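Issue: ligand-bound run for zinc ion - logging full I/O for the record.

Environment: standard queue, default settings, no custom constraints.

Inputs:
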Amino acid sequence: MSVRASVATFAVAALFVAAPLAQRAPTPTAPPPANPRLEALKKEVLADVESRKVFTQQMVDQIFSYGELGFQEFETHRYLVDILKANGFAVEEGIAGIPTAFIATWGSGKPIIALGSDIDGIPQASQKPGVAWHEPLIEGAPGHGEGHNSGQALNITAALAVKKIMEREKLPGTIRIWPGTAEELVGTKAYFIRAGLFKDVDVALFTHVSDGLDVSWGARSGTGLVSVQYSFQGETAHAAGSPWRGRSALDAVELMDIGWNFRREHLRLSQRSHNVIVDGGDQPNVVPRTASVWYYFREIDYPHIKEMWETGDTIAKAAAMMAGVDLLPTKVLGAAWPQHFNKVVAETTWANIQRVGMPQWDEDDQTLAKALQKELKNARAEGLTTKLGEQLQGPVRENTGGGSDDIGDVSWNLPTVTLRYPANIPGLPGHNWANAIAMATPIAHKGVTAGAKVQAMTILDLVMRPELVQQAWTYFRDVQTKETKYEPLIRQQDVPAIWLNKNTMDKYRPEMKKYYYDPTKYKTYLEQLGIKYPMVKK
Ligand SMILES: [Zn+2]
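Outputs:
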């Protein structure tokens, strides 16, 4: 059933590609219809984004210095909301029951374009920027070991540049800016959908940090997932005096993990599954009354994610029976659909990417990149990417699994693309201190400015060429969702897991505050930290 669904989707996508030329949206190589007014405004917006690069750099550095984990992005939230309000956006805070989520709106009428990007950090990724080896600012603290400090800076720069033009030219259209709160927990976007935040939106332009400048359409490689916490309850007893009177919840956790790891041999190659024990009891001489284990079940389509989840539930029940304890009601802590991006919006974005091209890296940028790649040993020391890909990437042919992003849920509710912009170094492990090194350096600053130029031109395209929005919806309705319909993975009883990461942030925040970036005193965060860019081993 599930396999058939995905094959069908693919077949339809293939049909679309093979359709006669007349029915197709403009191909990436076809020049857009002559539109001198749009052309002049694009030139203007490119110069305007360039002129905002100090402001862009400050946003990148500021959010980097906050280094906040998912659901606890309070400083980041305040900072972004204040900037948006100061620039004429109406901001609604605490949306979908999530304190660190907002929607900022400017403009009126159609089209409504939603600009999103993630904002949260990675546990234990604290790292001095611009230094080509592991050197935490604060040992054990979180940091931007994915680069989620950069995407909002890109969107805000682009939005403000376009807003200036739309105001003067009296162009109808609405810009909405929203954060991918707690993306590392895939914790919020399904709730945004449930709350109806995208109901009237025409196109979602999402951005994500990368080492290249690109966009793709169709099914993207990688997985969707459901994130589930299993909690067990037994009875305490003296672990030496009367162990037979106790029942260990930790036994159930361990039995579940053993059961899952035996089953793993018989799962599909495309799956990924992993867990952490979040409660393993109190102390050895007290039989653990409570214990919990937290699983991510990942697969490349919705039916297979559901199937894995059911297997997990069965193993949890069986483990509880073996241990003689109770399995408490499970909690879904996050969910993500596999991603599928819009062909028309991707083609529009790709044309703008080709126009902007990769940033001009200088010798310092390349020196840092090569030194870090060498430090990591397994990466080829080829430095930063200098060229664009040769063509717009279409649907992935063989999806062997990989990461997830809950932008997938958005992508199944309206035409969506993710613009990936070159703010990081190739060949890094991901979710690691190494991925933080470039993220408050000229590499990130230049990459974000390049991305903002693309984003600004794409917004202008959508505002000034209403046929693009129409064609995007034709693809969405007639191709993408013809066979596959969105069904949320979150259940009715599930709520956003806003308690996550609170203890960690409470522990580290007082120390982290000492390192918040102060742009009134320092031009850059590197300058504030006294780092002579780039710092590499001799
Ligand atoms: Zn990410």
